[in-house]
């Protein structure tokens, strides 16, 4: 084999969660998985394996698993809150008034490739801030 190592040896993606720095396998079982490539091409982690200390470490990891899951859940909630704040900061509220042209949502939502909105409709009467009487472009009530 020449000077370059095969691509599978050079790069490895373990789907580590950016927020909590844990892999899905670790979040489920409380310990990291050993990849098949690490068995054939030993790494420092595999070479440093000791069966007696490993049993103690596995027990400790299982004890701390609930705490890891709680921390990951807290990070996920915090991330959702940040995304929500980012989105809501860019929303501009617009009050609809008499005479505005709007699109109406199709309920129940259509399947396949049918549109989810229909219209345009003109607001002809405001019943409450979020309730309107509409008419289509032909003048028929909707």
Instruction: Tell me the number of strands.
Output: 3
Task: Give unreliable regions as ranges.
Answer: 5-13
Instruction: Bin the strand percentage.
Output: 15-25%
Number of helices: 5
Q: How many domains is the backbone divided into?
A: 2
What global shape is seen?
A: elongated
Main sheet summary: 3 strands, antiparallel
Biggest sheet strand line-up:
1-2-3
Mean pLDDT: 79
N-end to C-end Cα span: 74 Å
H and E order = HHHHHEEE
Radius of gyration: 29 Å
Helix content: 40-55%
Question: What structural class do the secondary elements suggest?
Answer: alpha+beta
What is the topology?
Elements (H helix, E strand, L loop, with lengths): L6 H4 L13 H6 L6 H5 L3 H4 L3 H39 L11 E5 L11 E12 L2 E6 L6
Antiparallel strand pairs: 1-2, 2-3
């Amino acid at each position: 084999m020449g000077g370059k190592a095969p691509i599978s040896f050079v790069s490895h993606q373990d789907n580590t969660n950016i927020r909590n720095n844990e892999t899905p396998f670790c979040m489920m079982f409380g310990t990291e998985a050993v990849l098949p490539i690490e068995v054939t091409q030993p790494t420092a982690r595999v070479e440093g394996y000791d069966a007696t200390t490993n049993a103690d470490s596995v027990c400790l990891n299982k004890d701390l698993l609930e705490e890891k899951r709680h921390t990951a859940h807290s990070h996920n909630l915090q991330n959702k809150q940040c995304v929500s704040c980012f989105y809501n900061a860019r929303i501009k509220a617009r009050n609809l008034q008499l005479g505005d042209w709007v699109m109406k949502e199709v309920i129940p939502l259509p399947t396949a490739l049918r549109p989810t909105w229909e219209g345009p409709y003109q607001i002809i009467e405001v019943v409450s801030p979020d309730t309107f009487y509409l008419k289509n472009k032909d003048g028929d009530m909707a």
